[in-house]
Amino acid sequence: MLDNTLTITTDIGGTPTAEDFNRDEEYLNRSVYTGTAHTLSMRDQLTLYRTKPKANGNFRGMAKSAAKFTKDITVPGVDGADIVAPLLGEVSFSLPVGFTAADSSLVRERIVALINEEAFIAQLVDQLRI
Questions:
Q1: 27 conformational bin, left if phi > 0, alpha if psi -120 to 50, beta if neither
Q2: Strands 5-12 and 30-35: what pairing?
Q3: Predicted confidence pLDDT, tens digits, the chain (130 residues)
Q4: Residue 69's closest CA among 127, 114, 19?
């Protein structure tokens, strides 16, 4: 089980900032952490998921995990009035039972490189802005 407090370092505008997320709820195969900006009306959450592998014949199955950030923000509605809507970001893994540390490192580093690639993000995310 992960710690009750998870600290991640974000780099927004060139300033590294430590953000704490505290365990708020725990379910079977899912843990929900809340950030310091979380309130009853505005979410700031990190949710962690796992799915245990299921063997099939000679194949031992896939171990699955995911992490999802949810942060509510205020945006203009169609009528011009402000509404609250979630920013969502998620990463997931499906790894075959028996993978090595080098295997998982490779896929993680590729994901980090892809997310940090400006041309990719420009096509995937930034083009969606109005």
A1: beta
A2: unpaired
A3: 789 999 999 988 889 999 999 999 999 999 999 999 999 999 999 999 999 999 999 999 999 999 999 999 999 999 999 999 999 999 999 999 999 999 999 999 999 999 888 888 788 777 777 6
A4: 19
Domain ranges in the chain?
5-98, 100-130
User: What top-level class would CATH report for the domain 5-98?
Assistant: mainly beta
- The pTM is what? 0.87
Structure tokens at 76: 């203009």
Residues in the chain: 130
**Torsion from C-alpha of 87, 12, 77, 43, nearest 10 degrees:** 40
